[in-house]
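Reader question, answered in our methods column.
A reader sent in the components of a multi-part assembly and asked whether the whole thing could be modeled at once rather than chain by chain. We filled in our standard form and ran it. Here is what they sent:
COMPLEX SIZE: two components
ENTRIES:
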Amino acid sequence: MKASIGKSPGLAVVSVGKRRDSHTFIRIKLKACDEVGIATLIEELPENCTEHQLLNVVSGFNENPLVHGIIVQLPLPQHLDEEKIIDSVSPEKDVDGFHPLNMGNLAMRGREPLFIPCASKGCIELLLRSGVEIMGKKVAVIGRSKIVGLPTSLLLQRHHATVSTVHAFTTNPEKITREADIVVSDVGIPNIVRGNWLKPGAFVIDMGTNRIKDPSSRNGYRVTGDVCFKEATKVVSAITPVPGGIGPITISMLLSNTLDSAKRAFIFP
Amino acid sequence: MKASIGKSPGLAVVSVGKRRDSHTFIRIKLKACDEVGIATLIEELPENCTEHQLLNVVSGFNENPLVHGIIVQLPLPQHLDEEKIIDSVSPEKDVDGFHPLNMGNLAMRGREPLFIPCASKGCIELLLRSGVEIMGKKVAVIGRSKIVGLPTSLLLQRHHATVSTVHAFTTNPEKITREADIVVSDVGIPNIVRGNWLKPGAFVIDMGTNRIKDPSSRNGYRVTGDVCFKEATKVVSAITPVPGGIGPITISMLLSNTLDSAKRAFIFP
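And here is the structure of the entire assembly that came back:
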């Protein structure tokens, strides 16, 4: 884009506080942007910043024509109203796809959201590129978080899967999961999905990112998914590993969303 | 409300063209408003009206402080962009709950939409008042229309049901439906849900409104649901009839949404 029209897409990242995992995620995102030529702006606010300060930062990025995408790194400290902050991001720059207007347009068939949440978009991309048919397939989505489980269910339904959502109140989650041709897990509990939860030949996307203690590791922990990988590999036709599976694809989708947004801005300024 | 604060809630209805079923629905809504003291305004546009004319009417109602709810009766004639018209209704007056912002907030747990679509809200009301536990129950929602199936799925999930959506591309819809404790149907095909699709003791809500020819009837047709009522009654613990089941409750929910909106307007003008 820089070479052809002399302009670059721009991504703004807002971070509050010093959570180590959040800073790791941000570093990965910034590095990826750098590699593909997306300009980045980062605003780091202290843990005890006020809602007003944070809203002001978002508002500044909303107005800034060099910024095509805005990420407010979640989770925010408890004293900040996450809902209000997310609603303050312009839907036209909401590259995370978390604004309710974009989520509503994702839910409603026949409409096109401006942005689809990155992990969910990555999940579909992975299925399509792996030649997995989605239409008519039974899918179990385990977990219903606003940022992964929910939009993934909605997106799979747009692709005409028959989706069942499994959550903490589901009786016999293993039974529903065992009937699914495609299983997507985003629970946040290590190894909750066992081998006997899975249908032979199923396609499994593990969205979990869980830290478990591991004294043998340099950091004292290692990252694992929701699915018991060792058991699953004996049953399923394919499974994404954690780490290294859906994570990098999610980052690619963030770059893709930012590029799409920049194209829209340059074509219809 | 009139007696206590001297003010009435107001509902505006916009209708385009002369579809007989639409006019029947509107007449029922206006009559119900009249009975409970909700003031009504109706604007009837000709079949061939322009999008600009329709948008102007909606915009007028958005601005009018006497109007607390706006309904644009669907479906609209093909030359009008339904999405654009729905988006033009102020989310604060969207008593149908069809605006993507309200739909997004319905989908996202922890958030509160200003309005929940009336048929879906009626469905939950019916379950709760009938003492049917929703949490943890397996629910099959057959059909995924934007105005009934989708919001009903989303709302049931908010109530912690384990929801499976069944649609035209679902293989073995009868199998999934047969496993459900609660079945909600909104397909628009008479008698598609047969007795052997249903689990013994299930609770069935039939949202279908289908006209079938009936020479013995005064109009030459009669209205029937999606579920084969005669077969279902032998299997299930309860089923809503069509007509007379979910329809009147849906109208009540419209009145309730309009009243809620008026209260918000009078308390925070």
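What stands out: The domain at 118-246 of chain A is CATH 3.40.50.720 (Rossmann fold). Chain A touches chain B at residues 83, 99-105, 107-111, 135-136, 138, 144, 146, 150, 154, 157, 160-167, 169-171, 176 (CB under 8 Å).
Send us your own complexes using the same form.
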